[in-house]
Design goal:
By secondary structure, the chain is an alpha/beta fold. The protein folds into 2 domains: 189 residues, Rossmann fold, CATH 3.40.50; 50 residues. The protein has 7 helices and 7 strands; from the N terminus they run H-E-H-E-H-E-E-H-E-H-H-H-E-E. Strands 3-2-1-4-5-7-6 form a 7-stranded mixed β-sheet, sandwiched between helices. Helix 1 runs parallel beside helix 2 and helix 5 runs antiparallel to helix 6. The two termini are 30 Å apart.
Length: 254
């Protein structure tokens, strides 16, 4: 799912750059780039545009805000391999909400499975800040996991929602593992079940994971004057049952 989301985001960025005809500069903020999988993908897209089409000579300024310094080595390699006369990349090991970016304005703000690491009490601050940082016609492009809807004031409902969401993934991964004849594939499914168990426990304990429903996210974005123009469910495709799922989304300032 993560690779699908990364490819969706990178493809969308490439199309929008070509459509919007950014002839001078492009400012991008990526929140929580992790090891730089998405970062490397869209930077390669921009570099290819610059190399293959003289109409687009983009001077890019990219800010990466990553709270986990353990990912620095990966991100520094991405920067080292891509920084050039047309591209400036800045890495900040800071909390996005606490980081002072008052004088900044971005054409694109990106996030890949980062939103659900924002504490429930800071979700509105998160979207408000994104709205403030986007320039006119700027876009917030992100991939996210949403769980079945629940009452934020009811902890039992919250836990039930997390259990439904993660157990669905664990069930499918376990089934695929049992019916697979490929050892490498089996190990991948086994690893996925282990990660989902960890993620479920972290969510229950509110230990760095704070998943919300699609409805709750939309409400917070609306309050921040962010208009969600794309919200495509990548999977699972059981539209008759609210299992939650993985989504590719684009929001613009109202």
């Amino acid at each position: 799912m993560q690779n699908k989301i990364i490819n969706e985001i990178a493809t969308y960025i490439k199309e929008k750059i070509m459509d919007a005809n950014f002839t001078n500069s492009l400012k991008i903020l990526e929140i929580g780039p992790g090891t730089g999988l998405l970062t490397n993908k869209y930077i390669n897209c921009i570099n290819r545009i610059n190399e293959n089409n003289c109409k687009y000579r983009l001077f890019c300024e990219i800010d990466l805000i990553e709270i986990n310094s353990e990912n620095n080595l990966f991100l520094e390699n991405v920067i080292k391999n891509n920084q050039n006369q047309k591209m400036t990349i800045n890495l900040y090991n800071e909390n996005f909400i606490a980081k002072n970016l008052e004088k900044k304005s971005y054409d694109l703000i990106l996030s890949s499975f980062t939103n659900h690491h924002i504490q429930y009490t800071e979700v509105q601050l998160f979207y408000d800040k994104i709205s403030d940082l986007l320039c006119s016609k700027g876009k917030f492009i992100f991939g996210e996991e949403y769980v079945p809807h629940f009452d934020l004031n009811n902890d039992a409902e919250r836990i039930r929602s997390l259990v439904i969401y993660h157990n669905r993934i664990i069930f499918e991964a376990t089934s695929n593992m049992l019916f697979s004849n490929n050892e490498i594939e089996k190990n991948c499914f086994l690893k996925l079940t282990e990660l989902e168990h960890i993620s479920l426990q972290k969510g229950i304990n509110k230990d760095g994971e704070y998943k919300v429903s699609e409805k709750q996210a939309k409400s917070s974005m609306k309050e921040a004057k962010l208009n969600l123009v794309i919200c495509n469910k990548i999977g699972p495709k059981d539209d008759d049952v609210d299992w939650g799922g993985v989504y590719f989304c684009v929001a613009i300032t109202e």
